[in-house]
Write a structure and sequence with these properties.
The protein has 292 residues and is of the alpha+beta class. The chain has a single domain, classed as Nitrilase/N-carbamoyl-D-aminoacid amidohydrolase (4-Layer Sandwich), CATH 3.60.110.10. Helix content is 25%, strand content 28%. The chain has 6 helices and 17 strands. Helix 3 runs parallel beside helix 4 (184-205).
Length: 292
Amino acid sequence: MKVGLIQQRNTADREANVRQLQTRIRQAAEAGAELIVLQELHNGLYFCQTEDTAVFDQAEPIPGPSTESFGALARELGVVIVLSLFERRAAGLYHNTAVVLEKDGSIAGMYRKMHIPDDPAYYEKFYFTPGDLGFEPIDTSVGRLGVLVCWDQWYPEAARLMAMRGAEILIYPTAIGWESSDTEAEKARQQEAWITVQRGHAVANGLPVVTVNRTGHELDPSGQTRGIQFWGHSFVAGPQGELLALLPDSEEEVRVVEVDKARTEAVRRWWPFFRDRRIDAFSGLTQRFLVK
């Protein structure tokens, strides 16, 4: 399967961002992509640097304007697209939601972000209710997609549950970067940890991983910090954690990467982690902490 990654720098002009995404989706499709993955909250700036009730005006229903416009493009090009939207479910109820569009433009399925961070410059708990759709893969014409979102990527349990339910590939739309006051050594540690933990999910589950992050600098509207420098580095890892593609940190790029889903069978025969799991001893995982 050929997967298209679109790593983009966004501005406050949401319509321009969407036009650019649509142009790049066309480029990826022309290069042979069958599945195209966009970054987290791709229509606009990463608004969670501050807490502002006016931002809720950006949220949209699903189905809604984005699923309609990108759905028409998916149908025209005959590709599957993974969107990442600010969902308005009801008054006062909002989610960070990934939507998978089938190649006929229909909605194949949705995933609502389960793990919601609340850290300086990432005040997501103010905006997003934790997901309630579980860790369920989405069936499409290109395979069974285990779609998760950003902060979910640090949790091996999320990847494992997607794999246990038959996901053929793990996909992470992402928005993560550096705060400017961090030292260069600390920035390097953070980025390396981010790549390493996701490559670990590929190894532990014998599945390819596709991660698409935004790039560029986005100002903090409050002026309390110097904003976020999103670190790009979108990548694809194979089922042994091998890097099949790694995009740059500060450049926009469209990259089409070939992923061999059939390798999962071979890798799981060599490394039968699912066979040897001690499921009789894992009940503690449902507890917050176990030290008494």
